[in-house]
Amino acid sequence: MAKRIYVGSLPYSTTAEQLSDLFSPYGDVTDSVIVKDRETNRSKGFAFVEMANDDEALKAITALNGSNMGGRTLIVNEARDRENRPEGGRRNSYSGGRDHNSRRERY
């Protein structure tokens, strides 16, 4: 069964090919995707790698987590499903830059 791996703290210049080359000594890499910003198309500094089986993925995670790539310490672990991630990040509310609690009424 294929296993997805999260790779964080990547150098922004990393390519999908370099990522595959990094993981291939540990087993068959079936896919590697660098996550990019929609507006700028620049790397966000993290990626996902898919490996052919769980044992190979575990070997890669163990070997590469905490390793150095381009002067950055990699974070490598099993990717979590979207519904299993903790909430956080962006909020849907927008205040327009105002602090509504500090508004004063003028008479």
Explain what this protein looks like in three dimensions.
This protein has helices at 16-23, 54-64, and strands spanning 3-8, 29-36, 43-51, 68-69, 72-73, 75-78. The strands form two sheets. Strands 2-3-1-6 form a four-stranded antiparallel beta sheet, covered by helices on one side. Strands 4-5 form a two-stranded antiparallel sheet. It is globular. The termini are far apart. It is of the alpha+beta class. The mean pLDDT is 86. The longest helix has 11 residues, at 54-64. The chain has two helices and six strands. A hairpin with a 6-residue loop joins strand 2 (29-36) and strand 3. It has one domain (3-80): RRM (RNA recognition motif) domain (Alpha-Beta Plaits, 2-Layer Sandwich), CATH 3.30.70.
Kindly report how far apart the N and C termini lie.
Answer: 70 Å
CATH-defined fold name: Alpha-Beta Plaits
Order of helices and strands: EHEEHEEE
Major sheet, described briefly? 4 strands, antiparallel
Large-scale geometry: globular
What class, by secondary structure content? alpha+beta
Poorly predicted ranges: none
Give average pLDDT, whole number: 86
Strand content: 25-35%
Count of domain modules:
1
C-alpha Rg (nearest Å): 19 Å
Task: Summarize the amount of helix as a percent range.
Answer: 10-25%
Total helical segments: 2
Q: What's the CATH architecture name? A: 2-Layer Sandwich
Strand order of the largest sheet: 2-3-1-6
- According to DSSP, the number of beta strands is 6
CATH class: Alpha Beta
**CATH H level, superfamily name:** RRM (RNA recognition motif) domain
